[in-house]
Amino acid sequence: MKQISVLAAGWAVTTLAIGVAVTGCGSDKSSTPSSSSTSSKPASSATSSAASTSGSAAAQPSDYSKLLIKATDIVVPGDSFTLVQTVPIPSPAGVSGLFGNQGGARTINDTINVYPDAGAATQARDLSVSTLTDPDLGVRGGTPTPVDVGNGGTMAVGTTNKPDGPKAKGSIMFTEGKTFVDIEFESPAGDPVPSDFILDVARKQDAAIKAGLPS
Questions:
Q1: Which of 42, 64, 97, 180 has the fewest CB within 10 Å, making it most exposed?
Q2: Model confidence over 42-56: pLDDT tens digits?
Q3: β-pairing verdict for 11-14 and 81-89
Q4: How far is CA 206 from CA 46, 84, 102, 159, 188, in A?
Q5: CA distance linking residue 28 with residue 39, whole number of Å
Q6: Average pLDDT, the chain
């Protein structure tokens, strides 16, 4: 495994081995009907209600949060990141995870969309790459650069304007199978994001998808 060590304006990166663990949680819910409802409710009605509940649960969208990298995969000596929130994406299905550092000045927004097939994911990537360095939508001053991650990996590093002032910004996009991944990195204007750090995080995300994507 190739190791990456970078020191640039506060961002120092050391590549760690990737570990992906899948955890789950569940809860048991029960209710006790009143004696009158128990005696008057037909068995067929109760069966129908149970079947309806089961069908409703099965219809829920897939939980893709297990595909996200872990906060411990984001390695910056002297700093640490936590997963601030995950947001399920209904269409196209997927998940977005927001990671922030201790002071909240550095953020990583990791978005994974799962398409019906690899062709649809590639189309989404190509469309998004076309706006990667758009001055209003993407990375200002950056140059789209092919990188070795997933399929069609493309990265740009530059700046972006926010209501509270300019920020350093990096963005990387790639596909892995039927998934399209878009990871955005932001930090203070005087703290640019190193390209090697962006690529390291993206490769860990790619490995997590390979290990966890349902067939």
A1: 42
A2: 444 444 444 433 333
A3: unpaired
A4: 46, 21, 25, 25, 26
A5: 25
A6: 78
Could you tell me if residue 94 is left (phi over 0), alpha (psi between -120 and 50 degrees) or otherwise beta?
left
- Average pLDDT rounded to a whole number, residues 107-119: 97
The first and second tokens of residue 178, run together, are 């039927």
DSSP codes of every residue in the chain? ----EEEETTEEEE--------------------HHHHHHS-HHHHHHHHHHHHHHHHTSPP--GGGSPPGGGS-BTTB-EEEEEEEEETTTTEEEEEEEETTSS-EEEEEEEE-SSHHHHHHHHHHHHTTTT-TTTS-BT---EE-SSTEEEEEEEEEEEETTEEEEEEEEEEEETTEEEEEEEEEETTSPPPHHHHHHHHHHHHHHHHHH---
Q: Which residues contact 192 (CB under 8 A, 6 or more apart)?
A: 8, 9, 11, 157, 168
Distance CA(89)–CA(172), nearest Å, equals 19
Q: Token pair of 48, please?
A: 């129908």
Predicted confidence (pLDDT) at residue 68 exceeds the cutoff of 60: yes
Question: How large is the average pLDDT for residues 70-96?
Answer: 94
